[in-house]
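User: My instructor asked us to take a sequence, write out its structure as tokens, and then describe one feature of it. I'm not sure where to start. Here is the sequence I was given:
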Amino acid sequence: MSETTKRPVMAWTFVVTSVAAFMVALDNLVVTTALPSIRHSLHAGLSGLEWTINAYTLTFAVLLLTGAALGDRFGRRRVLSVGMALFTASSAAAALAPSTPWLVAARAAQGVGAALVLPLTLTILSAAVPASRRGAALGVWGAMAGLAVAVGPVIGGAVTEGLAWQWIFWLNVPIGLALLPLIRRLDESHGPARRLDLPGVALVSAGLLGVVFGLVRGNSHGWTSPGVIGPLLGGAAVMGAFWAWERRAVEPMLPLGLFRNRGFAASNLTAWLMSFGMFGSIFLLAQFLQGVQGYSPLQAGLRTLPWTAMPMIVAPLAGPLSDRIGGRPLLVAGLGLQAVGLAWMALVVSTGVSFLALVPPFVISGIGMALFFVPIANVVFSSVRPDQEGIASGANNMLRELGGVFGIAVLASVFSAHGGYASGTAFVSGLTPALWVGTAFVFAGFLAALAIPRGRPVRADSPVSTEGAPVLGPVLGPVEAPVESAGAPGLVPASGPTS
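Assistant: Let's start with the prediction itself. The structure tokens for your sequence are:
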């Protein structure tokens, strides 16, 4: 296919995959500004609000790797269509929820659909874009996902106030129905046929559910009660069994050998720590603007714009910059700025704090989020072989989502241990230490980003080493080595360390 013929195909693939990724990523935080309305409408407590968020992110995270494997085996376009159909149907079920358990179940089903959609949008886009443009394309894809997370509170607030909280889910339905026939126009592709690791899926699902269940119940039931200690210890034991199983499984859902690559391990640890600190903080800050500051859902969403607008401004500049200097400097700078922003919020937050006092830390955190989301996908892809991109995509997204799950559970526990919903003063008493915990985890992510190997991008037409397995350009992605060089299945960086 000529370059001229490929351009419309690339453009169409980019539009469809970006919109699909934006849609499912939006549901991570679109609910946040609707939480007070859901709390009053369904008479939900703090644990119910936590599960409204975590039911989605937990199933999403656990099944991301399975979604990537299903796409490799049965066809990425076909599985993407199934995931989009499930996501659309479960969105309608969430909108119809008459109770908190119904809403939590619908959110869990949404997470399953999203797990089939998000990793496949990334691998389909990566396959459609030449190596010379992959850094920019994946950077914009990452920015779209990051933008969805950032504008979620604004959209959620506008819809909740203008219509009702149920409409944050109804809006997914026409978009999903419109995307389904468009997905069929994408080229079908397959990855290496892998056996589904069903024991691995069952073990990690049960283990994570036990740990998160114990964390959510800790403060309300007592950390030493059997109803808390049992799930925590049981979940940890099952996670240990999962680790042992993955080490000996013929085709594991999470190949632990990938983590022997320093770039892959450090970038994934960075993603987990960032999500832990940032999304756990956002869960509480969205409620602070309404419950303490007295803003309506729309007013609260609009007041996050100094935060949410930054990715739209910074991302178009950061994508090409990532191609030139590599992803590591952007990740380090982004996480450093996010840590500064959260620490600033922890210092100034109070019942009488003015909105203007929150603008500087919001802006700093927004710039930091943009600098993180733009290069992270390409940094991860650059550390694995082309045939491992699907599993790498799933692993990175899984760990990032799990960071949010644990962040919400832990920071909510810190919040309820020191404060609560009784008054504005009580809320701030819980929010302040929770923000400091979030800051600590984001700063740990900053330190982890420093461990990502240094490197500069390699042009697609640059000479590369041909020893060992297919060679990987540090930023622009895979550069196919000659056939005769395909040897051991290890990870071989291009001449020089990966970024």
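For the description part of your assignment, you could build on this observation: DSSP finds 17 helices and two strands in the chain. Try explaining in your own words what that tells you about the chain.
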